[in-house]
Amino acid sequence: MDALLTACIEHSLNSPSVDATVFVASSGVPLQASVSAGVAAMGEWHGGAIEEAAKMLQEGATTKSKSLHETVKEILNTWKNSGKRLPGYGHPTHTDDPRTKRLLEIADQTKVSGIHVKLALEISALTEAIYGKHLILNVDGCIAAIISDMGFDWRLGKGFFIVSRTPGLVAHAYEQMYFEKPYKAPHWSEIQYTGRAERRVPES
Known about the structure:
With 204 residues, the chain is mostly helical. It is globular and about 70 Å long. The termini are far apart.
C-alpha cells in the first residue's frame, strides 16, 4: 500500500492536476482551494485510467470459458474496435515506466501478484499484434492490476490516485504561494480567437 501511494505522489509540472493547482494558487486563494482545484482536474484522461483499467482486468479475470490468451485477444479487439484509448497502457513520456517495474517487483516480493497482474502483463505483450505497436503497462495499469489482486473494487481506482497525488499538490501550491510570482496566466500572444468572423449587426 505504501508503494502504491508513493508511486503517484509527484510527477513534476507535467500533469493537469498540478497545472490547475499552480494556476489557482497564483491568484491568491487559500491552500485548500488550490489543492481542491487540482483534485477536481482528475478525470477520465488524468487519473481515471486506474479505474477503467481495474474494471477491464476484473471483468477479464472472471472469464472462465476461455484461455488467458483468448481472453486477452478479446479484450484488446474490443477496445480497439471501440476507438477508445486502452486504459493503463502507453505513456506520453515513458517508453518503459520505471514506476511499473518497481511496483511489480514489490508485488512479487510480498506475494500480492495474482491473476490480474498476469492478465495485465499478457495484455501488454499482445498489444503489438493487435494495435501494430507495443503499448507498455504504465503505472495506472500496474496499480489497477495490483489493487485488483488485493481485492479492491475497481470503483475505488480513482480514489487511490486522489489520495496519492494530494500531498504533491500541497507542495506545488505552497511553492507557488510563497516562492513564485502571483497571477500565472497565458501571455496575450498565446490567445487566439477561433470563433466566427466579425459581422455587421442588422439595423432595427
